[in-house]
Automatic annotation (TrEMBL):
Protein name: histidine kinase
Domain of life assignment: Bacteria
UniProt EC number: 2.7.13.3
PROSITE patterns the UniProt entry points to: HIS_KIN
Enzyme class, first EC level, given as a word: transferase
Length: 399
């Protein structure tokens, strides 16, 4: 909790962040003919100048204080009404008031500054040793308008500060969350690798049919978990500022890598029909591991979201101008609402219980495409859905 002195300093800083205040005080003096005008912060304990224009050498600067009990502003704090005095000596209410005689003024005007929540902040005030004509709608209306304007700006500054505090807190939470994801993903790799290696060893043994099915379930689950961990780590890396990193090879053997991914997924979906049409006529300058990761996400989605008796078609070609990869399945049409957020993190659309995941696969895939200065697009009709990766070949690709 802030100390009262710190609160006052914060109030002074807030007033001086409002560019209009200096002009307001100048206009007040010019319009009324009075030599001193100020914005004062008035609390139950203190009267402090936040901004001032002093043409009569009253002698108090920003941050200066008056004893609260000696000010009329203390009374305004209690009743929250403006006080206007044209000529103290002729005013029945203030002719014998201690404040004018103590500070030597004859004209006085002070209007309360009330914040949106009803809190009394302070006053916009002016004084002068000479009488002035203040009790008229023009002057009082001007002061009221200026006081309201100052209150509006103070409320806006407070809302902005509140938003910035909340944003900072959210950012800190986001960083901690992403650090947790990164650490968790890294630490999960070791036991998962142990499980995967053990299933490979067991699968080479003479197993009965039931045990073989169990080993296959463990192996398939390990493969799926590995993909989830990879996506978690890439997501956390991107969020923490690292982004998707690439290690390009001038003549990447993408055909071999794509077939490797197909074999891995075909082992998990042995009954699915996967047709391939590849035509690699030009070297591809890319990160093969990343393209394979992208392809694995697309193909796994295609197999997950299409009927078991349908065919998944994969086409890929390279030319002097581009590398193009398309994965097509005959699943349900993707709804328009889901299409809008398909490549956003944690977006999974409508899925079956068996298809639940983190919703990071397509996001990571799109980030890999972006890192290659390429695009990942989707088209979906009632007949088929097609995800297409396109990496154009430019001079920058080979730097």
């Amino acid at each position: 909790m802030l100390h009262s002195d710190q609160i006052i300093l914060t109030n002074i800083e807030a007033i001086n962040k409002i560019p209009a205040v200096a002009h307001i005080l100048e206009i007040v003096c010019r319009t009324t003919g009075m030599g001193f005008s100020a914005v004062a912060r008035v609390t139950s304990d203190t009267w402090t100048v936040c901004a001032v224009r002093d043409e009569i050498n009253f002698g108090i600067a920003v941050g200066g204080e008056l004893k609260l009990e000696t000010t009329i502003c203390n009374e305004i704090r209690q009743h929250k009404q403006a006080v206007i005095i044209d000529h103290v000596a002729e005013d029945p209410d203030f002719a014998h008031h201690h404040t004018p005689s103590m500070y030597g003024f004859q004209s006085y005007i002070s209007v309360p500054i009330i914040l949106k929540n009803g809190t009394f902040f302070g006053t916009l005030c002016a004084i002068d040793p000479k009488p002035a004509k203040l009790k008229n709608p023009t002057i009082t209306g001007m002061f009221t308008m200026f006081a309201d304007l100052i209150a509006f700006h103070l409320d806006a500054l407070e809302e902005l500060a509140k938003t910035e505090r909340e944003l900072k807190k959210e950012q800190e939470i986001a960083v901690l969350r992403d650090q947790f994801i990164a650490i968790l993903g890294h630490d999960l790799r070791n036991p998962l690798n142990a499980i995967s290696n053990s299933t490979q060893l067991l699968s080479r043994s003479n197993l009965d049919e039931r045990t073989g099915r169990i080993i296959k379930i463990i192996r398939d689950s390990s493969f799926r978990m590995n993909g989830l961990i990879e996506n978690m780590l890439d997501f956390a890396s991107g969020r923490l500022g690292g982004g998707i990193t690439l290690s390009r090879t001038a003549d990447e053997d993408l055909e071999r890598l794509l077939f490797q991914v197909i074999e891995e997924l075909q082992a998990i979906w042995p009954l699915r029909d996967i047709k391939v049409n590849f035509s690699f006529d030009h070297p591809v300058h890319a990160d093969g591991k990343r393209v394979a990761q992208l392809f694995s996400n697309l193909l796994a989605n295609a197999l997950n979201y299409s009927p078991s008796d349908s065919t998944v078609l994969i086409t890929a070609f390279s030319s002097e101008k581009e590398f193009n990869l398309c994965v097509t399945n005959q699943g349900k049409q993707i709804p328009d609402a889901a299409m809008e957020r398909l490549f956003q993190p944690f977006s999974r659309g409508e899925v079956e219980p068996s298809q639940k995941g983190l919703g990071l696969g397509l996001y990571i895939a799109s980030e890999i495409a972006n890192a290659h200065d390429g695009t990942l697009d989707v088209s979906s009709t009632p007949e088929q859905t097609c995800f297409t990766l396109n990496i154009p070949f430019t001079h920058d690709n080979f730097k």
